[in-house]
Automatic annotation (TrEMBL):
Keywords: Oxidoreductase. Belongs to the short-chain dehydrogenases/reductases (SDR) family. This is Uncharacterized protein. GO terms for molecular function: oxidoreductase activity, acting on the CH-OH group of donors, NAD or NADP as acceptor. It comes from the Eukaryota. It comes from Calycina marina. InterPro entries: NAD(P)-bd_dom_sf (IPR036291), SDR_fam (IPR002347). Gene3D superfamilies: NAD(P)-binding Rossmann-like Domain.
Length: 194
């Protein structure tokens, strides 16, 4: 099994990498910050206890907001591990005033990882399965918080795109799911709090 995880250095990303590694999967950790990606890789190397887990982890800085960065990250991962069995979109995009401008220009940035995952040409799992796409929305889709309408709109966009992707991908055997997350203690927490 080969899986790419955007937002891999986040708390839920680390747990996901642990789970996939325990299943002897090859896992590519992607994150916007090279420092956080390196910290996550170092964590797995230090805590592997001599298992093959750390050797089956690839880490690369990937910014899902940039098509060029995303494509380069997926290309490097596929060269390292082979064709993808799954994509896990856990990337955190911190909402700000700039996000409102981005929404007017080219759509919600947190949703772009979903669209790119649906279009991955390299996803082809063994055993007749076509793999899966797993997305993280936000707890903001479950709460009534009016402080940042643009941010909340993008989180609802993640949920809507997940539903649409499910309908689009189901005939090809690709499973698509989403979860709503709260804040998790991780290397990226200081970014969210600043």
């Amino acid at each position: 099994m080969v899986a790419a995880i955007t937002g891999g250095p986040s708390g839920i990303g680390v747990v996901t990498v642990k789970l996939l590694s325990s299943l002897e999967a090859k896992v590519s950790i992607g994150g916007v910050s090279q420092a956080s990606v390196d910290a996550a890789k170092a964590y797995f190397e230090e805590n592997s206890n001599g298992s093959a887990g750390a050797a089956s982890i690839f880490a690369k800085a990937v910014d899902i907001r940039s098509r060029e960065s995303f494509d380069a990250g997926i290309t490097a991962m596929v060269q390292w591990g082979g064709a993808l069995d799954g994509a896990v979109n856990l990337a955190v995009v911190v909402c700000s005033v700039e996000l409102e401008i981005d929404l007017e220009i080219d759509g919600p940035k947190p949703s772009t990882g979903i669209i790119k995952s649906i279009n991955l040409k390299d996803m082809n799992a063994p055993n007749g399965s076509k793999g899966g796409i797993f997305n993280a929305a936000s707890i903001l889709i479950l709460l009534d918080i009016g402080s940042d309408a643009a941010c909340i709109a993008t989180k609802h966009g993640v949920l809507a795109l997940t539903r649409a992707a499910t309908r689009q991908c189901i005939s090809g055997g690709v499973r698509v799911n989403a979860i709503a997350l709260g804040i998790v203690e991780s290397w990226n927490r200081e970014v969210v709090e600043s």
